[in-house]
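Query structure, 317 tokens:
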């Protein structure tokens, strides 16, 4: 049944692509004149989208593919998504195994468009399978990140790397829309200044923490921790598809007890129940760190970073 369902979805996907590719050809001959419009840009996830749209300003139309709250590791495009991508001159994705679906979608629906993988434009970290020193996970064969030894894709969670991303975005926008290249660079400079101020603020606030160590449920915050000299003492799921064994969970509980870990942190995009059970067993609070944002409290890149700083302040003071 699973294979059959997959086959049906693939056929539907091909049919959608055909509709998107063929029907636009009617735009010039079906009584509706084609609109010149602004440069179209498609972006995979919210934090990158927020940076791209601010650099783009009024000169490009930037569209977010994955709405906040949805899982960025897998994506089934709707007809609207395919139509959106088909009009794009630039696609901006993370790469590094986070959103491979977008590269396929861009190449199928908009083969002439440029693709910017922001993960290729910044220094990267290697995923640590187990920060507490033992490999005690059952691994799925098809998880997106590639497992131990792969590059950690969560590069945007370091504001200094985000500054490099902003520069790359301005460069690529200038290539697809040379008429507004200067404006893109100017707005990138403004965003860069905002990120500089944000980074300084986060650094000063996090330096004041009495405790530096914590445990996360998912392995998203290595770049954030590296930038602000925090210590991730254990990760329950280093990457999607890794399932902790009972032995590993027992070891994490010992680390929490021995190091007097003040809190376990989950993410709003995850099912909170496993983390809640573990936090209750460890008798520590369950906090929230948001790596993607886009919600009411995190509807800009800066607000997302400040939200995470505030959560750490709440539990690590």
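Result returned for the query:
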């Amino acid at each position: 049944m699973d294979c059959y369902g997959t086959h049906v979805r693939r056929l539907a996907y091909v049919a959608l692509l055909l509709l998107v590719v063929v029907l636009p050809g009617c735009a010039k001959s079906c009584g509706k004149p084609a609109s010149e419009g602004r440069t179209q840009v498609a972006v995979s996830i919210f934090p990158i989208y927020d940076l791209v749209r601010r650099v783009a300003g009024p000169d490009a139309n930037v569209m977010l593919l994955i709405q906040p709250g949805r899982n960025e590791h897998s994506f089934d495009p709707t007809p609207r998504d395919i139509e959106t991508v088909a009009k794009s001159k630039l696609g901006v994705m993370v790469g590094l195994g986070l959103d491979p679906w977008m590269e396929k979608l861009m190449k199928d629906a908009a083969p002439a468009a440029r693709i910017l993988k922001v993960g290729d434009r910044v220094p990267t970290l290697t995923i640590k399978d187990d920060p507490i020193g033992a490999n005690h996970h059952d691994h799925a064969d098809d998880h997106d990140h590639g497992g131990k030894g792969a590059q950690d894709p969560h590069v945007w969670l370091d504001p200094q790397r985000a500054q490099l991303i902003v520069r790359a975005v301005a460069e690529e926008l200038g290539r697809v829309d040379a008429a507004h290249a200067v404006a893109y660079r100017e707005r990138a400079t403004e965003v860069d200044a905002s990120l500089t101020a944000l980074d300084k603020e986060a650094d000063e606030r996090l330096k004041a923490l009495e405790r530096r160590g914590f445990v996360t449920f998912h392995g998203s915050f290595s770049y954030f921790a590296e930038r602000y000299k925090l210590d991730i003492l254990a990760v329950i799921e280093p990457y999607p598809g890794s399932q902790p064994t009972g032995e590993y969970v027992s070891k994490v509980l010992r680390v929490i007890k021995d190091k007097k870990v003040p809190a376990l942190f989950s993410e709003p995009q995850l099912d909170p129940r496993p983390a809640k059970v573990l936090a209750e067993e460890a008798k520590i609070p369950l906090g929230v760190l948001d790596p993607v944002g886009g919600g009411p409290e995190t509807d800009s890149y800066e607000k997302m970073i400040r939200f995470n700083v505030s959560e750490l302040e709440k539990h690590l003071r």
